Amino acid sequence: MHASAILTSLPLAFTLLAPLHAQEVRTGSKAFGTWQDDAPGVSRHITPADLPPPSLTQNDPEAPDFENMATVVPAPQGKLPAVPQGFTVQVVARDLNQPRVIRIAPNGDVFVAESGSGRVLVFPADAAKAGPAKPEVFAEGIQKPFGIVFYPPAEPRYVYVGATNQVVRFPYRLGDRKASGPAQVIIPDIPTKRHWTRDLAVSRDGQRLFVSIGSSTNVAPDMPRKTPEEIKAFEKTHGSGAAWGDEENRAVVRVFDPEGESVRNYATGLRNCSGMTMQPGTDTLWCTGNERDHIGPNLAPDFLTSVQRGGFYGWPWYYTGGNEDPAHAGERPDLKDKALVPDVLLQAHSSTLQLVFYDADAFPAEYRGDAFATMHGSWNREERTGYKVIRARMKDGKPTGVYEDFMTGFVLDAKTVWGRPAGIAVARDGALLVSDDANGTIFRVAYGGSK
Predict the structure, then answer these.
(1) H or E element: which one contains 91?
(2) CA–CA gap between residue 431 and residue 132 (Å, rounded)
(3) Enclosing H/E stretch for 371
(4) Which of 55, 96, 113, 417 fits a disulfide with 440 by CB distance 3.0 to 4.6 angstroms?
(5) Domain spanning 13-447: which superfamily?
(6) Are 42 and 25 in contact (CB under 8 A)?
(7) What residues have CB less than 8 Å from 41, skipping those under 6 apart?
(8) Residue 421 to residue 160: CA distance in whole angstroms
(9) Domain ranges for the chain
(10) β-sheet bridge partners, residue 202
(11) Rounded-to-integer distance, Cα 347 and Cα 247, Å
(12) CA-wise closest residue to 161 among 183, 178, 176, 189
């Protein structure tokens, strides 16, 4: 079935009514909740002042450690996600093997990282409208492919792919559906323990590419001790707050030139920047943050954030600014005032994977410039959260901190879900494409007559 997956405009498409902005923004303790509170239009604004103190610590052997993996079932007959009033949802691809990142080529072709099969697939730009179309295999034999970028951005000659163990590129000309040559390794020997997603982004001028590399542990409990002098020397080459030992060059975003001749840390303290994108019209890099576990059901908050060059985002010593992790109490007081607060705080354990800015005209004007992000869903708290797509509200290109539910309804009950949103992209026609890697599905979300 995986090899014959098709992108096709199915009759399973209709408008699901839900209030667009029917609820006030939830703040303070009301901003926290579970899947049962989710619905399109529900808005939240979490601030650092709202965070509870840690109720657990990874260093406490008696602390409960929740493992509450959901059982994934096929979508119930006729079931589609809920979206705001005026929007429609249709299934446009089925039977894929762990589809994650979706990226749109300059000509509109849809590239999908099929992480479970080690392939990068391509769907024609107009396949959802033109009828059944089998995906073509652009490249295969890749170890857990994830990030995809086109280089140079406007007239690409290569497709770069972030595998879990390396960054590679394939020769490409606009319209190619199959790589015309073998993979060329640009960054070799990326460590693969634990967090394996390697997303990619590229600056507007094509001079800089970025790769995200998550940590190998939850909160680096076994880093060897260093003297202050040793730390200072290490940070000169690795960046402020960079971890070491098995975590060297982990929990970072790295920047490299197109040939991979220069690779260095761009930002540190990012436990798992699973998704990256450039904000349209700027050279501002953004990422999603999957924060640490084992310090409480509402800690530490996941996030969306712009990524500053040389920025330190706290891990493993701090979170959400200068909040010290109890597992590293008293170890790095020098970093307390250096840890940056992310731009948009999200409920902890949402497992936010990918984000994209909406820069098309097919949605109502109020959506222009806002960010959409996928939440893969919690596995490690008593009551679930995540399993949805959210919209982060922007004003004049700056985050307001408010985010609202956009696509919900994947959770059936306390134990069962029928989808886990993973990848997200804005198609050439302005529709939103969302991948569900649990059931191997891609959804298309359109507004009004844009079908």
Answers:
(1) strand 87-93
(2) 18
(3) strand 371-375
(4) 96
(5) TolB, C-terminal domain (2.120.10.30)
(6) no
(7) 18, 19, 20, 21, 22, 23, 84, 404, 405
(8) 23
(9) 13-447
(10) 209
(11) 26
(12) 183
User: Does residue 7 sit in helix, strand or coil?
Assistant: strand
The kind and range of the H/E element at 128 are: helix 127-130
Tokens at 442, concatenated: 């891609």
Q: Where are the beta strands (DSSP E) in 146-204?
A: 148-151, 158-162, 167-171, 184-187, 200-202
Q: Is 119 helix (H, G, I), strand (E, B) or coil?
A: strand
Residue with tokens 């507004």: 447
Q: Are 93 and 108 in contact (CB under 8 A)?
A: no
Is pLDDT of 15 > 80?
no
Structure confidence at residue 382 (pLDDT)? 83
Among the listed residues 111, 110, 106, 150, the one whose alpha carbon sits nearest the alpha carbon of residue 126: 110
- Cβ–Cβ < 8 Å for 81, 60: no
Proportion of the chain above pLDDT 90, given as a percent = 85
- Please answer whether residues 253 and 276 qualify as being in contact, where contact means their C-beta atoms are separated by less than 8 angstroms: yes
Beta-carbon contacts of 184 under 8 Å, excluding residues fewer than 6 positions away, are 168, 169, 170
**Which one, of 12, 120, 119, lies nearest residue 111 by Cα?**
120
Locate the DSSP E strands across 78-204: 87-93, 99-104, 110-114, 119-123, 136-139, 148-151, 158-162, 167-171, 184-187, 200-202
Mind listing the pLDDT tens digit for each residue in 213-252? 999 999 999 899 999 999 999 999 999 999 999 999 999 9
For residue 19, the model assigns a pLDDT of 42
Q: Which residues pair with 209 in a beta bridge?
A: 202, 256
Cα-to-chain-centroid distance, residue 9: 26
C-alpha 435/C-alpha 110 separation (Å) is 12
Cross-strand pairs, 218? none
Give CA–CA dist 19/333, Å, rounded: 47
Of the candidates 444, 353, 405, 379, the one whose C-alpha atom is nearest the C-alpha of residue 113 is 353
Structure tokens of 391?
């919209």
The rounded distance, in Å, linking the Cα atoms of 132 and 441 is: 15
Q: What pTM value is reported for the model?
A: 0.93
Rg, C-alpha atoms of the chain: 21
